[in-house]
Amino acid sequence: MRTLLIEKREEIDNVIRSCKTCFLAMSDENVPYVLPMNFALDGDHIILHSAQSGRMWETINKNKNVCINWIVGEELKWQDVRVGCSYRVQSKSVIAEGKVEFVEDFEEKTRCLELLMKQYSDRKFKFGKPSVVNVGIIKVRINNITAREFGAKPELSWKS
């Protein structure tokens, strides 16, 4: 089984949009911290939301560089059922690195909340002023993005 690089941005975006959770990695003073988060993809930005306080907020204020991971698929595959090293979880993974921007503008926060909900539902939602004012909206500008498919079937080669 092979690990293949996923190069087309459209395919990378499809992997991201098929996920329900991303994992946000951050660090302050070389102490790593990872959180599962809900998200939305908006072009070259990842939108996240949270309270405007707490460990995540404090960590990001110290270091705005973050890494985000998505993974889809968890089917166990093998080449030979008797050989442990031939086992692999068949999956696709995306890693994006970027820098955090805090969103303060009311209309932009509302737009971001709409995008977040669109990731999870086709319904239209309304957001009251207190909800928008009190939520923390974080945009991560993607500076680098890579994706891989793990456990891909090996190509058949024909020998003459």
SSE layout:
Layout: E1 2-5, H1 9-17, E2 22-28, E3 31-37, E4 40-42, E5 45-50, H2 55-62, E6 65-78, E7 87-103, H3 106-120, H4 129-134, E8 136-152
Antiparallel strand pairs: 1-8, 2-3, 2-6, 4-5, 5-8, 6-7, 7-8
Provide a concise account of the structure shown:
This protein is of the alpha+beta class and 160 residues long. The protein is 24% helix and 47% strand. It has a single domain (2-152), classed as Pnp Oxidase, Chain A.
What keywords describe this structure?
single chain, 160 residues, alpha+beta, Pnp Oxidase, Chain A, 8-stranded antiparallel β-sheet, 4 helices, 47% strand, disordered C terminus
